[in-house]
Write a structure and sequence with these properties.
Elements: E1 3-7, E2 10-13, E3 18-25, E4 33-39, E5 46-51, E6 57-59, E7 68-73, E8 78-83, E9 92-99, E10 113-114, E11 118-123
Parallel strand pairs: 2-11
Antiparallel strand pairs: 1-3, 3-8, 4-5, 4-9, 5-6, 7-8, 9-10, 9-11
């Protein structure tokens, strides 16, 4: 059974940083795509970034490039999302997702495995 466990969320002031972690269990880590999504209140879940087994990454939201960085530690079966210069509009529930391939377009349907989410709140 695949389990994705997110951690690292919290409350931070605008301009601050957080690093989210997602540990994968029971998952074909060596060949799988890992991704981060987020969902703000009243909005649809949107893809943030995805990373392939070899480390190649895709950022689905251009405005986040340069502020958010996705990375993975294959030895720990863990994917990270480093978030810097946070803004109030980054406030959302952040979800870890996994599947065999990284899609060109980030859609919820492209990923079969999901974590429970971790809340990020950015105050102005």
């Amino acid at each position: 059974q695949v389990q994705l466990l997110e951690s690292g969320g919290g409350s931070v002031q605008a301009g601050g940083s957080l690093r989210l972690s997602c540990a994968a269990f029971g998952y074909a880590w060596s060949s799988g795509c890992m991704a981060w999504f987020r969902q703000a209140p009243g909005k649809e879940r949107e893809g943030v970034a995805a990373i392939r087994p070899g480390g190649g990454s895709t950022y689905y939201v251009d405005s986040l490039k340069g502020r958010f960085t996705i990375s993975r530690d294959n030895a720990k079966n863990t994917v990270y999302l480093q978030m810097n210069s946070l803004k109030p509009e980054d406030t959302a529930m952040y979800y870890c997702a996994a599947d065999s391939d990284c899609p060109v377009v980030a859609t919820v349907r492209a990923f079969n495995y999901w974590g429970q989410g971790t809340q990020v709140t950015v105050s102005s």
